[in-house]
């Protein structure tokens, strides 16, 4: 399959763990290769020869793919003779990397899995974690984003547990590149910047120069997608400079290609043509299966900017059958989009509409919002889990210190307590119990509030957030159709509908948080509104209020409203009642609410807090915080009576 633009970036970042000797600071890849070949002329034994072949396989991966594959075959043959399973697993891993750089993902996965089997037999947990990273890169390149994120996070967890900072930051860089694919540019920049900061602090060897070469390129891509073209150009140039220095032809070719695309976008035509020519020549020297067709997309785009539409069309129609045969989806997407533009400018409406429909269909196929959302959610949960673990660790340390302090104090106090009477001991015990009950009540309220926040966050994320994402996607294509009134109007209308739905969801959520009637008027008006909406032929609700004042404390109003609302909901869901009676009586010192239904009843001892945070136990905790009292009387077949009293 031919490479897409995103795949060209992915190919650059395959995890590098295999360095068998120290490399001097001034060396580049070609110098390392020359030194290794010199070692072969000294007639080393088979074990040493196998190690040299393995190193040549790895270092040729960024210089000549064909040479890398040849040395890989030699390395396997010699290593099998000396029966070194550890080195053999590394060679298969390195060959997986070579095939990955060559965009041959099938053979890449095949070799990685061979290495995986050997390391599994050896119970090499660290080696398996590194392979998880490599396999995740393959899955990422074949659009299996959820699977890739899962494996990256597993690897990251292992490296963090071992404080392996090099591999931690290598994995972070991989996750950053995955976020580039997911178009989550802020997270991409965050992860890539952290990784780059670590690599820049290390002694600059070929290994770390290669990592900077690749990560500068990926960070530039993230800034370009964010339309921060100034920073994109800075990091593309940094990548080109260090890739050229270290002799990484693949990185040098791709950084020049991206500079060419950026200069085309900025209408710097001569600079763009120069960058694209450098990229083409360098890639030819690399002698990879990655051929010139994908580069021709960029050349055609540059011609379109110069309004040389016929030349661009000729190039695109020539490479289109190749992309269709190879099912190279992202290259097809770019080609469809450019052909739509060309035919639109030449007033060939039928052809323009044809390629536009193909573009929209394929774009919808590739941009799977649910996959992107679920993949990003994995990373958020991982970060949340890490924070929770840090908090638990800190609490554990504090708890141990407190135990030591209180133990010491306890020994001192024991001498004093010995002389105290039994009555004083009972008083102290009673006070502790009161404090304990207050603590339990406070925790119950906090849990209820946390659950409510989680529910609202889920609603915002899964409902409103997804609608806004869809609206943003539609807005992103408006610029393409600003001269096409029909398509522009269709996309705009669709966007308006999505935004109206999002606004309705916001209103619904805000009402759930705090009813409008309670905000604008009073508890009595809010309850009348609630009853009027709940009354039905199957359930008759009678509401009586005496002495209820409008200036009642807001906290008391909210708790009373929520308590009565929950009682009604429980009656509807579980009681099978025909009639409900609600009475609210306010005096100078207290407000009392009495709720009765004629339903099937229940056993109050079996009732516990509900997951939604509004169960009877949580309601009791809220009333306790207001120093109130809650009494529940019910039995099976005898209906339910609930009495609530709160002091004013």
Automatic annotation (TrEMBL):
State whether keyword Transmembrane helix applies.
yes
**Which positions carry the signal peptide feature in this UniProt record?**
1-26
Keyword Transferase attached: yes
Q: Which InterPro entries match?
A: HATPase_C_sf, HATPase_dom, His_kinase_dom, Sensor_HK_TwoCompSys, Sig_transdc_His_kin_sub3_dim/P, TPR-like_helical_dom_sf, TPR_rpt
A Pfam family this protein belongs to? HATPase_c
> Recorded GO terms, molecular function?
phosphorelay sensor kinase activity; protein dimerization activity
> What sequence ranges are listed for the domain Histidine kinase?
459-648
The record lists the membrane-crossing segments as 403-419
State a GO cellular component annotated for this protein: membrane
- Enumerate the PROSITE patterns for this protein: HIS_KIN, TPR
List keywords of the entry alphabetically: Kinase, Membrane, Signal, TPR repeat, Transferase, Transmembrane, Transmembrane helix, Two-component regulatory system
TPR repeat placement: 89-122
> Could you identify this protein by its name?
Tetratricopeptide repeat-containing protein
């Amino acid at each position: 399959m031919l490479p897409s633009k995103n795949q060209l970036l992915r190919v650059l970042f395959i995890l590098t763990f295999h360095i068998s000797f120290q490399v001097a600071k001034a060396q580049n890849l070609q110098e390392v290769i020359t030194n290794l070949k010199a070692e072969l002329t000294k007639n080393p034994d088979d074990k040493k020869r196998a190690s040299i072949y393995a190193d040549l396989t790895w270092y040729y991966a960024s210089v000549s793919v064909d040479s890398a594959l040849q040395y890989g075959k030699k390395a396997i043959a010699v290593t099998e003779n000396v029966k070194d399973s550890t080195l053999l697993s590394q060679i298969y891993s390195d060959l997986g990397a070579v095939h990955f750089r060559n965009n041959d993902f099938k053979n890449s996965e095949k070799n990685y899995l061979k290495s995986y089997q050997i390391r599994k037999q050896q119970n090499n947990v660290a080696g398996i974690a590194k392979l998880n990273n490599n396999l995740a890169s393959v899955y990422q390149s074949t659009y299996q984003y959820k699977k890739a994120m899962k494996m990256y996070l597993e690897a990251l967890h292992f490296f963090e547990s071992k404080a392996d900072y090099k591999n931690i930051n290598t994995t972070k860089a991989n996750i950053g590149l995955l976020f580039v694919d997911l178009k989550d540019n802020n997270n991409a920049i965050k992860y890539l910047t952290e990784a780059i900061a670590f690599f820049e602090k290390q002694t600059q060897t070929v290994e770390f120069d290669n990592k900077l070469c690749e990560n500068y390129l990926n960070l530039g891509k993230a800034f370009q997608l964010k339309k921060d073209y100034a920073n994109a150009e800075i990091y593309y140039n940094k990548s080109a400079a260090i890739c050229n220095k270290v002799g990484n032809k693949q990185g040098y070719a791709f950084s020049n290609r991206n500079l060419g695309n950026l200069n085309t976008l900025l209408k710097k035509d001569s600079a763009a043509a120069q960058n694209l020519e450098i990229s083409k020549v360098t890639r030819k020297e690399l002698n990879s299966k990655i051929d010139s067709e994908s580069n021709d997309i960029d050349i055609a785009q540059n011609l379109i900017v110069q309004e040389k539409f016929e030349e661009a069309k000729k190039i695109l129609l020539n490479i289109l059958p190749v992309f269709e045969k190879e099912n190279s989806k992202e290259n097809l997407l770019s080609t469809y989009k450019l052909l739509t533009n060309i035919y639109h400018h030449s007033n060939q409406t039928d052809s323009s509409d044809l390629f536009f429909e193909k573009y929209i269909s394929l774009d919808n196929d590739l941009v799977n919002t649910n996959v992107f959302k679920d993949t990003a959610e994995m990373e958020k949960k991982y970060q949340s889990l890490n924070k929770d673990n840090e908090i638990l660790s800190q609490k554990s340390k504090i708890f141990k210190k407190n135990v030591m302090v209180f133990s010491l104090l306890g020994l001192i106090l024991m001498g004093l307590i010995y002389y105290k009477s039994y009555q004083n001991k009972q008083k102290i015990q009673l006070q502790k119990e009161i404090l304990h009950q207050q603590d339990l009540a406070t925790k119950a309220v906090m849990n209820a509030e946390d659950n409510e926040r989680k529910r609202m966050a889920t609603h915002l994320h899964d409902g409103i957030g997804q609608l806004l994402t869809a609206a943003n996607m539609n807005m992103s294509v408006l610029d393409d159709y600003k001269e096409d009134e029909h398509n522009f109007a269709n996309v705009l209308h669709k966007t308006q509908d999505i935004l109206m739905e999002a606004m309705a969801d916001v209103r619904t959520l805000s009402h759930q948080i705090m009813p409008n009637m309670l905000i604008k008027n009073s508890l009595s008006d809010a309850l009348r509104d609630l009853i009027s909406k709940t009354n039905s032929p199957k359930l008759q609700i009678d509401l009586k209020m005496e002495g209820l004042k409008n200036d009642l404390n807001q906290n008391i109003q909210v708790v009373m409203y929520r308590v009565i609302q929950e009682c009604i909901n429980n009656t509807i869901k579980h009681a099978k009642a025909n009639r409900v009676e609600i009475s609210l009586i306010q005096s100078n010192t207290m407000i009392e609410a009495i709720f009765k239904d004629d339903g099937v009843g229940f056993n109050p001892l079996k009732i516990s807090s509900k997951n939604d945070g509004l169960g009877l136990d949580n309601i009791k905790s809220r009333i306790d915080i207001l120093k109130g009292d809650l009494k529940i009387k019910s039995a099976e077949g005898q209906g339910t009576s609930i009495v609530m009293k709160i002091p004013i």
